[in-house]
Structures are given as C-alpha cells and as structure tokens.
Amino acid sequence: MNIKDPAEILRQAAWKEIQRLELELYVADLDANGFTVIPPSIASPGDLHKRLLARILDLSEEDSGVRPDLVAGENPVAFKGSELVKAEDDAPFGQYIPSLIFEGPAFEEALLNPVLLAMSTYLCGFSAVLSSMSCFVKGPTRSALQLHADTFLPAPMPAHALLCNGTYVLTEFNRENGATAFVPGSHKFQRQPREEERFLTGQNANSNAVASEAAPGSLVFWHGNTWHGAFNRTVPGLRVSMPVLMARPSMRTEEDLFGKIPQAVLDRNPARFAVLTQQGIVNGWHSKEHSKLRPAQAREVMRKFYEEVDLPNADADIPLYG
User: Residue 175 half-sphere exposure, CB side, CA atoms within 13 Å?
Assistant: First the structure.
C-alpha cells in the first residue's frame, strides 16, 4: 500500500474523524444492517434539534395557516405524490416542506454537523453534496409509505453508496408514532423491492420490516440502497422529521443549488459548506460561455476546501470524487 496515494489518505482521514467522534459502533451497525440510529447525545449538539423543530413549526404554519399541535394535531396539509390534498384523504407523506437550506442558520448548522458529515463522508466521500434538505409533518393515517430504496437505478445497483440519508428525528419515533421502517440488510440486495415486498400494512405486510426507535434529537442514517418506508401513525399528534439526502457529485440531485446560495451565507460558513451546497460541481453548464466559466468556479471551490482541511488534490485540475 502506498501511503502517499491520495485516495488512501482520504480514506484514512475519513476514518480518523469517525474515531474522533466515537462512531465506530454506528458504522458497524450501518455496514451490517444498512441503517443505524445515533442518539441525541452524539447526534444533536446543544439544542440543535429543538431549534430545528421550532423553525419547522413556523414554516408549517406559514404554509398551512395553522399552528401545528404536536400532541393532538392532524396533518396541517398533505400531499399524495405531488398533489396537494385534504389531510383527511389519508396521504402518507403529510405536509412536505423542501429547500430548508435557505431557511436560516439552524439548517446550515444541521448540514455542517460533524456527525452527519462523518457518516456521509464514510459512504459517499469528501466531495459528497446535499441533494435535498426537507421536512415532513405527519399526523395519523391509515396507509403507510411503502418500502423503497432511494437509489433509483436498474438492478443490480452498485454495492457502494451513491446516496445516503441522515434524518433528524424531531419528535419521538416508534411504530405507533409512524417511525421510519427498514428491512435490515436490504442494502446488500442491490435492487428495489418487488411489488409484493413493498407493503407495511395489511395481510401482505413485509414481515422483515422493523421500526426505527429513536428519541427526539437522534439521527437515523442509512445507505442509499436500503429499503425503507414509514409506518402509519396510529395515535393522535404529529411526527416531525428532517431528511438530509446526500449524494456523490456525479448523481443528479433533487435540489439545484449551484449559484443559488447567497454570498452572505457562503461567507459565514467554512469552505466545505460551498462544496456541500453543490458549488464545486463542474457539470451543468447551459451555454458555451458557461461551459468555460462554471468549471473554473467549481475548481476554485474545491481547491479552497481541500486547502482548508489539508487534504490532497487542492491544486488538481478536476475535483477528486472520492
């Protein structure tokens, strides 16, 4: 093994951060089962999860006109696919609020959370980017969100992760509260579930699915190939979660952020924030002129990042996707 190999240096740097944060057991759990639950004492420094919840409740009220009642409430608004429907129409998504990275410093802090970044780097590399940051506010439903994997590619999917998800748990997760459901080990199947394997309720429910039990402030983290969904909530009140979907920069992201982040936001954050918010992605130009401008801008972003963290490739012509 050549210790000067840049890829090996990056792997060692990623593992060193996992050790510093004492995440080894959670990484082992992730490798074995395709998901892990990191408790609040590790996952949510200070009162981060409380600030995220408070801001999300404000945004929910702005969208719906109704202040969410966490104890006794129902869906403020609900979506079935991309269609807005009445809450009583039993939509398993509940209220969906996208593009949270633009909604204040708490969400910037959530993206830069060292635990989230260490786990994302372990699966998707130092150049991983934010695909989407959103939240779900969901009340009781009769139907569940069916099992699926976030990697929508033909089988066999690559064994290594192209995507990963770190979901901030902002209200208690258990089965009756409508927790995220997982099929342990399903990331190794390298395919989407078949139709008969997708169900979480009824006679055809997948018997291998388990609920993620988690206290508010936990981070539920999973591989992009892992089969997951959400059990239907059977008790009064609301379930609030904030998924942070991360991707390798070669993947098409859900949100298009290049050139969209205000300069003031970039200036108040470290260089990695620019990388995370897609400012280092070379491809995506829209004209001959832009095909020359965008790569130069992206290379400068990556150069500053690698320089900031003292990793190889700071002067490379093409960002290292590893």
Answer: 6
d(CA 306, CA 272): 9
Q: Is residue 76 part of a domain?
A: yes
Q: If you search the block for the tokens 């924030």, which residue do you land on?
A: 273
Tens digit of each residue's pLDDT (9 = 90 or more) over 271-320: 999 999 999 998 888 899 888 899 899 999 998 998 888 877 644 444 44
CATH number, domain with residue 189: 2.60.120.620
- Record the tokens describing residue 180, joined without a space: 């995220």
Which domain does 106 fall in, by range?
A: 6-256
Q: Which secondary structure element, helix H or strand E, spans residue 179, and what is its range?
A: none
The average confidence (pLDDT) of the chain is: 90
Beta bridge partners of 246: 130, 164
> How is residue 233 annotated by DSSP?
P
H-helix segments, 44-86: 48-64
Query: Which contiguous run of DSSP H or E holds residue 292?
Result: helix 288-308
In angstroms, the Cα distances linking 216 to 28, 36, 44, 58, 172 are 23, 15, 9, 18, 5
pTM assigned to the model:
0.92
Residue 299 tokens read as 């290379």
How many domains is the chain partitioned into structurally?
1
Residue 302 lies in a domain: no
Q: Which residues contact 251 (CB under 8 A, 6 or more apart)?
A: 131, 162, 163
pLDDT tens for each residue of 228-269: 999 999 999 999 999 999 999 999 999 999 999 999 999 999
Strand order in the sheet with 228-230: 145-148, 228-230, 180-182, 210-211
Residue 265 domain-assigned (yes or no): no
Residue 171 belongs to a domain: yes
Question: For the purposes of burial, counting CB atoms within 10 Å of the CB of 190, is it exposed (0-12), middle (13-18) or buried (19 or more)?
Answer: middle
